[in-house]
Amino acid sequence: MGGPTPSGGRRLALYGLVMVVVILGLAAVSTWALNRG
Fold it and tell me: Transmembrane stretches, by residue range (predicted)?
């Protein structure tokens, strides 16, 4: 790894956060659909 890159790290963290939110949203929708029948 090179030197410290706050912008790159922040972007990576934001991307990870978005991915987690999307995964949680899909899981919630799938479970809701299954529970609904």
Answer: 12-34
